[in-house]
From TrEMBL:
InterPro entries: Acyl_CoA_acyltransferase, GNAT_dom. One of its GO terms (molecular function) is acyltransferase activity, transferring groups other than amino-acyl groups. This is N-acetyltransferase domain-containing protein. It comes from the Bacteria. Residues 4-141 form the N-acetyltransferase domain. Pfam families: Acetyltransf_7 (PF13508).
């Protein structure tokens, strides 16, 4: 595998990321008001994560690694490279249960839903009511 470059995405490249989401994570869609970090190899973008500002907070969302690159620590490396972004504002994520350990290794701690800030509690409840099994987490390095 060729080396992977991790970097913040230039917003002009959003269509590339949205094609990636359409192919591998149809519920995800990058928006212009989000900050994106990607990992790219000679084969193109292989992973991405979005940061959505919600008032004075940010929500890490839409983590995606192309299936053929999974289980190779690429998501961990992406989160490590995105640490400057994660540290800019209080950062939360709603992790799938099977990814809890991944986020814990990156410095996130598991919360009870009632520990979330009010704006995020409502969003979390909406996501859970739609059938997603999620765990609220907060970055606490």
């Amino acid at each position: 595998m060729s080396p992977i470059r991790y970097q913040q995405l230039n917003p002009i490249r959003l269509p590339i990321i949205n094609k990636l989401y359409k192919d591998f994570y149809p519920a995800g869609k990058a928006k212009r008001d989000e900050t994106l970090w990607v990992g790219e190899s000679q084969q193109g973008v292989i992973c991405c994560v979005r940061f959505k500002c919600i008032g004075e907070l940010q929500l890490l969302t839409g983590m995606l690694v192309k299936p053929e690159y999974r289980n190779q620590k690429i998501a961990t490396q992406l989160l490590q490279h995105a640490t400057p972004q994660i540290q800019q504002k209080p950062c939360y994520c709603f992790a799938f249960k099977e990814l809890e350990a991944l986020y814990q290794q990156a410095g996130f701690i598991t919360l009870q839903p009632q520990q979330l800030p009010h704006d995020l509690q409502q969003r979390f409840e909406r996501y859970c009511h739609s059938g997603k099994k999620l765990i609220p987490m907060h970055y606490n390095a």
